[in-house]
Amino acid sequence: MTPAGQALAHRRPEGPAPVADAPAGYRPRGAVRLMVADAATGRVTHGAFEDVVRVLRPGDALVINVSATVPAAVDGVGPVGPVRLHVSSPVAGDVWTVEPRRAEGVGSRPWRDFPGGRVALPGGASAAFLARDSRSPRLWLVALDGVGDVLGYLRRHGQPIRYSHEGRARPLGAYQTVYASEPGSAEMPSAGRPFTARLVTRLAARGVVFAPVVLHCGVASFEAGERPDVERYEVSETTARLVNQARAAGRRVVAVGTTSARAIETVTDSDGVAHPGKGTTDLLITPERGVRALSGLLTGWHEAGASHVALVEAVAGRELVARCYEEARRRGYLWHEFGDALLVLTA
């Protein structure tokens, strides 16, 4: 494990740790609840997701991840029977990171002692398991054979990555944000799911600036102490300029989701200036590292100890985040990708 990964695994919160026992569930895009937490005042309020129109100000920059979700779960047959592969992120050539799982209901569960070997896939393709990934015992490095263009193959033979807490199978469209345009994510950048086309229009009419980035999400089912996958990102010259202009004008820069946050923070220097860039990022954002570009984060609710929570704490502080999680549990906020939302602001 890298030093940063060790810091994540062993860090001790200064305040009470966030709880993660709120229920999973489904809310339609237009019915998502929103908690707003102001780090400057400590005030926490509750309302509907569309309240972001009231909270965000003209000139604020909203950093959105326009990566689109692909059907990245593929069923195959391995040395010990059926296995579902969650195809995560490219490494080099035909080698990708993959998580093997056991199908269960509409979703699946981790296969922690998967023996490796070769898995036969639909269409005459196969996956040769090479070695476990050093960042997570549940991830493997896999050589894909007979697949060709991986995204094209997944479109033909894959299904959306689903987990057992979802309750029922939903089509790929349910896992897309309304502004998704660049296919490549194994799992949905879910913080943006509650936006509707109407809400985007209202925000634009209010003068909120949309600053698109691309970060293709790998599998998101990481546990406490595990780093996020190495993921592909792109920040355009236009987006870097919009973020810098907002900061220079004293406006807020709010990332929609931890993926958008990782992308913009990857290209922001120690002086807080964002630059265009493209490549891969393994950036881990913790309270110790802090944030450089952001003055806000719109996110979902994550498991205690996960790197996602550390990123929220980097923006809002551990004490406030712990209080938000306790309120979310007490008020019945819903967890996971189809659940409710949290907006933390520092200005």
Description of the structure:
The structure is a single chain. Strand 5 (73-78) and strand 6 (81-92) form a beta hairpin. The protein starts with a helix and ends with a strand. It has two domains: 3-69 and 171-345, QueA-like (3-Layer(aba) Sandwich); 73-159, Thrombin, subunit H. It contains eight helices and 18 strands. Residues 1-17 have low confidence and may be disordered. Helix 7 (307-316) crosses helix 8. It has a nine-stranded mixed sheet with strand order 2-1-18-17-15-3-13-14-16. Strands 5, 6, 7, 8, 9, 10 and 11 form a seven-stranded antiparallel sheet that branches. By secondary structure, the protein is α/β, with parallel strands linked by helices.
